[in-house]
Amino acid sequence: MTPASEASLAVPPSEKTPRTRGVSAMHFKSATTGVATKNMRNELNRLVNTVSDPTTKKAFDTEMQSFFYLFTRYLAEKAQSKELDWDRIKSPAAEQIVPYDQLPSNPDPKMLNKLAVLKVNGGLGTSMGMTGAKSALEVKDDMTFLDLTVRQIEHLNTTHRVDVPLILMTSFNTHEDTLRIIKKYANQQLRITTFNQSRYPRIFKESLMPCPRGADDHKSRWYPPGHGDLYNALLHSGVLDQLLAEGKEYLFVSNSDNLGAVVDQNILQHMIDSQAEFIMEVTDKTKADVKGGTLIDYEGNVQLLEIAQVPSEHVEDFKSVRKFKIFNTNNLWINLPALKRIMENEGMELEIIVNPKVDDDGQAVVQLETAAGAAIKHFKNAHGVNVPRSRFLPVKSCSDLLLIKSDIYSLEHGQLVINENRMFGTTPVIKLGDHFKKIAQFQKRFKKIPKIIELDHLTVTGDVYFGRNVTLRGTVIVVANEGQRIDIPDGCVLENRLLSGNLTMTEL
């Protein structure tokens, strides 16, 4: 491998400067863009040259080239102030979203042999106070997210006598953890492949220079560039070619913390019948989902719109359930030969999401990220399927965890099933306060998970502890005021109650 030279990171040809908005302002922006591009290219070449092993260096160089391309696109779009024209955004047309109940109900199970399942497994669960891979969290009956996924796919393989492999896309934060965890599945009826998504340098907001000074710099100076990196990472890791060589044609992608994302043969069959190259599962918005990305019709094309792309004056429109009735679950079905064609020919240009952060030294930094669902615009016959809410059960907080661990759900072959004694199709609304934010606190405050089969709504704030065999029904609100503590005794039944600071019980 020859040392990376200036030519290794070529600058894309600059766009002709459009003669609009004060020409001098445009020239100034183009000039500063040119300087930033050149500086970044030099810095990245310097970073590449900090790697001595030729094989590692080559892989790192490829990764930095992908980052450089994303960075130059970011600068170009910034210089042109490229934004979506809000007036051209329409709700998706009827044919762009297919209702789930219109899908075929007699799928051919042999088609499962053409399927692989990929879980996006790069998350750390830091918001819940975890330090390792989030997928290692025990969520139900002493089983982790990964255990449940393995159990589901194993059941699929043995029931239908097929070979659906599981692929885990990790990040540099979760890779070692994941490799350690999957050793225990060595004797199961399924093959597991792991690959690591890209590692990109954070950028200082002011100077637009990369934070790391060397390839081995501390991991806080790097970031995984979002699940939109899936396509690049699949290609560069060789996993895409490996799947195609095995005769796999379809890939079902979902987040590892979405417990509702199980393989659905009806959607697979519909994908085959409709010759769709890409399907996004969407579901109806509720008040809890107003920030989720949504599908839009933009000049006749179906596209993903994320809240980060919405101009601030239109954020309320975006959140409205009237105009945008559905949101993206991030359960995606991808035609693999089509993906290979797109990556080799036109490439995958996904909308850039700018994620501002503050580093450990208090400096403003920027992460350039992309979303996997944004790829929908590149594929033929791509559309959404409006699926039942049960296919979207993410665990993002301890409130979600309480629901999953409770008697509302039981497990069948690794799949969550709503308890038949639950009177309503909906699940209760649970809001636990800051005292329950971290896993360790959550576990300490519940001696045992309460029975909530007849619960509609639970709000808990303050220093509250639950005893064993507590039953909650209807609407229950528990508020411990500052400096007070509430202990709910073992065997207590609370039905339509408000408990406040001095432990007075009020009927609701």
Features:
single chain; about 500 residues; alpha/beta; Spore Coat Polysaccharide Biosynthesis Protein SpsA, Chain A; UDP N-Acetylglucosamine Acyltransferase, domain 1; 3 domains; eight-stranded mixed β-sheet; five-stranded mixed β-sheet; 11 helices; about 25% strand; disordered N terminus; Nucleotide-diphossugar_trans; UDPGP_trans
* N- to C-terminal distance: 73 Å
Report strand order across the widest sheet: 2-18-12-15-11-3-6-7
**Largest sheet, if any?**
8 strands, mixed
In the CATH hierarchy, what is the architecture of the largest domain at level 2?
A: Alpha-Beta Complex
Low-confidence stretches: 1-8, 10-26
Number of DSSP strand runs: 27
Topology:
Blueprint: H1 23-48, H2 54-79, E1 89-90, E2 97-99, E3 115-121, E4 138-140, E5 143-144, H3 145-160, E6 166-170, H4 175-182, E7 192-196, E8 200-201, E9 203-204, E10 222-223, H5 230-237, H6 239-245, E11 250-255, H7 265-274, E12 278-284, E13 294-298, E14 301-305, H8 315-319, E15 326-335, H9 336-344, E16 353-358, E17 364-369, E18 383-386, H10 398-405, E19 409-412, E20 415-418, E21 429-432, H11 439-445, E22 455-461, E23 463-466, E24 471-479, E25 485-488, E26 493-499, E27 505-507
Parallel strand pairs: 2-18, 3-6, 3-11, 6-7, 12-18, 21-22, 22-24, 23-25, 24-26
Antiparallel strand pairs: 1-13, 4-5, 8-10, 9-17, 11-15, 12-15, 13-14, 16-17, 19-20, 26-27
